[in-house]
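The methods section describes the discrete structure representation at length, but only in general terms. The central task, working out the structure tokens from the amino acid sequence alone, is never made concrete. Nothing conveys this as quickly as seeing an actual entry. For illustration, here is how one protein appears when written out as sequence plus structure tokens:
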Amino acid sequence: MTLKKIAFFIIIVFSLIIINNLARSIYSRWQKNHWVTDARQEVEKEKKENDELRKKLAQVQKPEFVEEEARNRLLLAKPNEGIIVLSKKDREATLPVTQKPPDLRPNWKKWWDVFF
């Protein structure tokens, strides 16, 4: 082998090593960029949730909310105010009936109606 062939071979091997390292570096940077993007999205999501919780906390700390909860959950009332407690039957009687009757047709007829 001549000196030119050996030098050419060394340059080729050296070039392949550099290309390999650059490719790994590019792939690593791409992955880290993806992780950063995901982390930013997660931070934005957490900020929105934090804002919602702050709004909820501000609402809960209002005296009107405390009074409403005391009335609804603890059945407390203001002085000279009466409380009416409805039984379960009475509550169900006051609710509108929005239930559909069950479809008793065979399944093949239901599928037929869906497609034709």
User: Anything to note?
Assistant: The two ends are 81 Å apart (CA to CA). The first helix runs from residue 3 to 60. Residues 3-86 form one domain.
